[in-house]
Write a structure and sequence with these properties.
alpha+beta, SH3 type barrels, rod-shaped, 24% strand, single chain
Length: 115
Amino acid sequence: MFQTFASLIAQSPAPTKTPPPQGFPPMIIGLGIFFVIFYFMMMRGNRKQKQERANLLDNLAKNDRVMTVGGLLGTVVTIRDQEVVLKVDESNNTKVTFLKSSIQKVITEGDLSAS
């Protein structure tokens, strides 16, 4: 019996194949791919917003009702290269000059009725 027990202990289990350890390079490659995809998604969104803003400012016309970045509402009187003159008060004929880039959006009839 001792001999049988000793022979069982002496037998080592068959070596199992273990997968090679996942090291540092595969992790770096995965993170690199993730950041590249993230970067392109962010840049595409910014590029689209810049294009929409450029279209808004290029299509600005006289008598458009606009809102400035500061929240001031007015009607476009004249448009120059980088400036826009807005009439902000009809009763006093008050006009204010703004940079074209300070126009946030053109207000439509749908925008006014939703408020």
